[in-house]
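Lab intake sheet, docking and co-folding queue.

SAMPLE TYPE: protein with bound small molecule
LIGAND NAME: S-adenosylmethionine
LIGAND FORMAT: SMILES
REQUESTED OUTPUT: full 3D complex as structure tokens
PRIORITY: normal
SUBMITTED BY: R.K., bench team

The fields below were copied directly from the construct record.
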Amino acid sequence: MSSKEILQVKKNYKSTKALETRKSFWRNQENRINAEEEFCKLLQLTGTEKILDVGCGYGDMLGYIKAKYTKTTLVGIDNSENMIKTARSKYNNIAFEVADVQKLPFKDKTFDVVIAKHMLYHVTNIKKAFKEIHRVLKPEGRLIISLNTLSSKSRANIEKYKQEIEKTSRYKLVQTVTRINTENYPKYYDSQDFKILKEFKNYSYTVMNNAKPLTEYISTFREFFIPTPSENDWKQIIGKIRKKIDIEIKKKGPLEEVRGFGIILFKKNDYQGGK
Ligand SMILES: C[S@@+](CC[C@H](N)C(=O)[O-])C[C@H]1O[C@@H](n2cnc3c(N)ncnc32)[C@H](O)[C@@H]1O
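RESULT FIELD (auto-filled):
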């Protein structure tokens, strides 16, 4: 990922709005599981762990854990100041800090659990992030991550229209799903560092009778294009996409959007030379 692309992604997360819109789109899906609940199920927490959430956004994962396990010690980091500001205002019993997952401001062997929920695909150097997480985990500590699946079924309309914007305009799309996903993640970490304990996948779907929800979702990606389209340009681009989706629905009937995502639970391996 180039430094230009990183800056673009950072712009998208400057405010919580785009993330909130995307999350509310998925919230209404059929066969949807509650990701926070699934993370907790897989982790089987005892309730006294020290947990770090990297790329915590506005803190809902940790908020969920704190409500269930009041004795856990929780820390959330995100490299967006506004995400951290919002997280602090939502949850005053959790510590939040602005930091980068590639350079964590914590001593070696500090945490029992590290969470990286839907965030690794934005990180410049994903291998470095895995190394840093390994460093701050206690011996036998656990890492839990979630990623999108690469399956062509998953996010098919969203990806199709994002690609179409790139093809029909002068803007270049910053890739996310194709970087790290549930299929290729093993190439990003050292197998000496982590052992996989469990893998979980879920597919959910929404059936749409009109273009509004999908158009709203796609409209949150303005900053994922380089250079950032002007407001006017973006309005026109999104207007065209909306018309196309409407025509597609009229011709073929309700449109289905599938979302595939996976959760992977790892255990830290301690080997000679490892921290
Ligand atoms: C898709 S959001 C996911 C937020 C949250 N984990 C959730 O599941 O709702 C990705 C988050 O990762 C953060 N992020 C991106 N790159 C980061 C980095 N290098 N270090 C820390 N946070 C980062 C973004 O600011 C954003 O809040």
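REVIEWER NOTE: Residues 13, 19, 54-57, 78-80, 83, 100-102, 117-119, 122-123 surround S-adenosylmethionine (CB under 6 Å).
SIGN-OFF: pending second check by T.M.
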